[in-house]
User: What shape does this take?
Amino acid sequence: MDEGVRDRLAVALDVDDLVAATRLARSLAGHFRVAKIGLELYTAAGPEAIGVMIDLGYDVFCDLKLHDIPNTVARAARVVGELGVSYLTIHAAGGTEMLRAGAEGLAEGATRPAGVLAVTVLTSEAEVAATRDLVAERMEVAFEAGCAGVVCAAPDLTATRHIRPELIRAVPGIRLAGDSVDDQRRVASPVQALAAGADLLVVGRPVTRAADPVEAAERLHRSLQQ
Ligand code: C5P
Assistant: This one.
């Protein structure tokens, strides 16, 4: 297994029970460094899901997309930090003060290196034409607030490449040729996304809903080794 490729990959464990998530995560640990726990799994299994993924050797990406008053976000982020996560998402739309409160809260609680990833624009939120300026603007906000990185769609990477290059770019909507697009609106192949400047590729259904998830993960790796 190519460790360099594995380092860049996050598997989105979008299922509603911890037994299924654990089974998937155990079989895919050789292919993905990061396990993303989103609202569905977190709502079903809570902090236990985070502990299980850490025990399996994953860095945990806690995708809670927080958006609330700064004090509430800071306090929640501190608790998430104590659970041992490596990444926590917060909506950049919440503004600098809220993001900063979250970044500080996470750092205060963190039991290992951890950073906030600011969600720039939801694919469901904006017209594509209006998106790029907003993504750029929110990247600046994320940087000013002390975030470690941002979540953005692959088509926005090139135009925003010059903006705060030190921010980690986490990119969902990754599809290989022949994969179903599902509800993703703005997709790219793994090679395209990395070439455009992605640091972490978030891959869900093309692997987790495949008839053979390990085979799908191997196909993903092979596409990046050519
Ligand atoms: O589509 P896939 O299952 O690979 O999605 C991986 C992640 O992409 C999801 O966990 C979700 O956070 C994100 N997503 C997105 N835009 C959509 C659908 C999903 O960014 N339209």
